[in-house]
Write a sequence for this structure.
């Protein structure tokens, strides 16, 4: 059902490499989010966007950066990966209908990042 | 303060029995939405059920129902007739429309269904 895609699904990379995690959605959603999640743990919001050219930092400090040049695309970049960045990264989107409460988050399948 | 609290890190239930997963929330907004998501071991997040703060009746979706007690600020998920495929992490979440439309997630409950 979900039309939100993340690539790659798994990524194993060495310390110091630059990486970009891709996230795209075809639902025309204005709001997009990145969450970081360690295995079996809660989700932490690291970035979100209200629309094109809008990006905000989330509740958990992250060394990653994001961009929103197109509505459908919300990539996350790590300039220099470290073992502490090993985690699952989940991208999500939701429609923007003013102050409604029932707009759920649609999630991608996640990227499991391992930095050696 | 924690916006969403899930006090059961892990739960076991026998197949075909019902199970309740607890969730309490904290908000001063009169309007909010409550959600439950399921996360299997494969990692994706699957939306299960939604309850609005002004909804008069408890939400139901198939085998899932939400026991919404507004005065207690609780939104427990009830899964009836558990199946082996229900084994997963379950997350309660809240959306506050007047707080930049943020979603808050609980720490999750790991449900194991025993055959």
């Amino acid at each position: 059902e979900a039309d939100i895609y993340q690539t790659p699904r798994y990524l194993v990379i060495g310390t110091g490499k630059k990486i970009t995690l891709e996230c795209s959605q075809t639902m025309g959603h204005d709001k997009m989010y990145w969450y970081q999640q360690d295995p079996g743990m809660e989700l932490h919001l690291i970035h979100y966007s209200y629309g094109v050219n809008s990006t905000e930092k989330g509740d958990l400090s992250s060394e990653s950066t994001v961009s929103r040049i197109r509505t459908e695309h919300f990539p996350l970049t790590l300039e220099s990966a470290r073992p502490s960045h090993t985690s699952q990264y989940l991208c999500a989107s939701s429609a923007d209908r003013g102050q409604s409460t029932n707009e759920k988050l649609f999630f991608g399948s996640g990227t499991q990042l391992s930095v050696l | 303060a924690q916006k969403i609290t899930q006090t059961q890190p892990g739960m076991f239930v026998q197949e075909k029995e019902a199970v309740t997963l607890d969730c309490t929330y904290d908000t001063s907004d009169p309007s909010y939405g409550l959600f439950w998501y399921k996360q299997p071991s494969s990692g994706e997040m699957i939306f299960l059920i939604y309850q609005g703060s002004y909804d008069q009746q408890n939400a139901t979706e198939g085998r899932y129902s939400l026991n919404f007690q507004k005065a207690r600020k609780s939104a427990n998920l009830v899964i009836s007739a558990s199946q082996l495929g229900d084994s997963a992490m379950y997350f309660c979440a809240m959306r506050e429309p007047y707080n930049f439309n943020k979603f808050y997630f609980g720490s999750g409950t790991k449900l194991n269904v025993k055959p």
Observations:
- The mean pLDDT of chain B is 93.
